[in-house]
Amino acid sequence: MTVGSRRWFLRASSSVVAGRAVALRGNDVEERDSFRVRQVAEYPDCRFQDISSGGTQILLACSQNPLVRLTVPSWAIGATKSGRSEGDTLRVISLSANGLPGNAARTDLRIPMRGTIWGAWWVPGESHGYVEWWAGRSFHQGVWAKREARVKVLPEGESKVGLTYLRPLDESSALGMSRGRIVKVRLPSMEVALESRVPVAANAAKVGSVVLSKARDTLAYVVEEGERSMLVLRRTSDLTVLAEIEPPMGLSFSMLPHAVAISPDGVRVVVDAYVTKTGPVLQPDSVHELVIADGLGGRIERQLAIDGRNALALSPDGSLLVAGRTIRDTARSGSYASAGIYDLRSGAELARVRHAAVTEPRDNPFAADFSGVAFDPNGRYLVTSTQHTRVWRIYREQ
Do residues 355 and 35 lie in contact, with contact meaning Cβ atoms separated by under 8 Å? Predict the structure, then answer.
């Protein structure tokens, strides 16, 4: 790294694995003198899903079953990243009073699922949420509650055929994508309240990188039609298009999951883009950079030479950016996930965290890929997730 930075090799730092204090080995953290990061917890075989609005509970999708290939429709980008055999478990982890997932951390809830969890979310508050899973060659949605260790399947019907990327807005409504449309449905009936084409100006078939602002009043996503890609922002209340932003010349916006991050106020959007001439987005040698857009003005503000193809997240105050990617070690047939923490204003790298290297099994080439990154509501903790979820404590000089 640059002068003034240090590399910390934490060969036996105390931490928590699945609620047990253990010694962690092989951790590699790079950081500046004024910015420190420490791993404080790890949850093996668990993929991070969401943090509650109060920041006291995290939602995980866990499995101990062998990894298998998952056959999905061609439009379901990202599903193969979590290709597990049936048997995922939805877990709610309560954190200790000070927010640290230490010895006081415990599992409050375990819900066995008959399929592969695609996504799970809290509704505002900390009592229940929604889950989407893949089973029997189709998607299903359901409601889970802390007081009951089971999922209530939402109604079937024409209103939800092909509905994916379900995102709860509040107790009574959610957004989803269905056959080139964005649909707002009533909960729990799943009746259609509003719908619109995705986006207004195109008859697009592919949608990816769907994300909501913290207040859940702004929706951002990437849409692709042929060789054309576009970043779209909408107001969630009435689906009004706030902005349609095309990538800079020579770039295409990424359709990968977690390739878009939106500021808490919904004004600034960061999206991963790749240099079109270097090949498709999934090509390991493709060149990536970040594009920062003004959502209100509908324009590109600037570009950063940072590769964030696998994971992006903004801190609650909008000052920090996390950008992650998977590093392929072809010589050793292994890979590891690496995420940089950056000052969004200057683009300077403040720290870098890594997951342990894994040897990728033949039936799961995405074993080391990020499945999610997020800050807690206070910006003190960072969650990074591949097949395993890690929690990091951030220390910043005031």
Answer: no
pLDDT mean across residues, the chain: 75
The Cα–Cα gap between 259 and 295 comes to 16
- Contact between 191 and 159 (Cβ < 8 Å): yes
C-beta separation of 30 from 36 below 8 A: no
Q: In 136-287, where do the E strands start and end?
A: 138-145, 148-153, 164-168, 173-178, 181-186, 192-197, 206-212, 218-225, 228-235, 241-245, 251-253, 260-262, 268-275
* Residue 238 burial (C-beta neighbours within 10 Å; 0-12, 13-18, 19+): exposed
Phi-psi region of 160 (alpha: psi -120 to 50; beta: other; left: phi over 0): alpha
Cα separation, 205 vs 226, in Å, equals: 9
Burial letters 250-273, b for 16+ CB under 10 A, else e: ebbbbbbbbbbbbbbebbbbbbbb
Q: What's the pLDDT tens digit per position in 340-355? A: 999 988 888 999 998 8
Q: How confident is the model at residue 261 (pLDDT cuts 50, 70, 90)?
A: very high
- The pTM (predicted TM-score) of the whole model is 0.80
Which residue type does 176 have?
Answer: G
Instruction: Note the Cα 162 to chain centre separation in Å.
Output: 21
Taking residue 236's Cβ as centre, other Cβ atoms within 10 Å add up to 23
DSSP state of 217: -
DSSP state of 368: T
Contacts for 70 with CB less than 8 Å, ≥ 6 apart: 79, 80, 82, 83, 84, 116, 134
Hey, which residues does 42 pair with through a beta bridge?
A: 17, 390
- Is the torsion defined by CA of 95, 100, 105, 110 positive or negative? positive
38 to 32, 41, 56, 348, 390: CA distances (angstroms): 13, 9, 19, 19, 10
- List beta partners, residue 291: 271, 303
In three-state secondary structure terms, 80 is helix
Read out DSSP for 39-57? Answer: EEEEETTEEEEEE-TTSSE
What's 193's DSSP letter? Answer: E
Structure tokens at 32: 């500046």
Order of strands, edge to edge, in the sheet holding 13-17? 20-24, 13-17, 35-43, 389-396, 381-385, 372-375
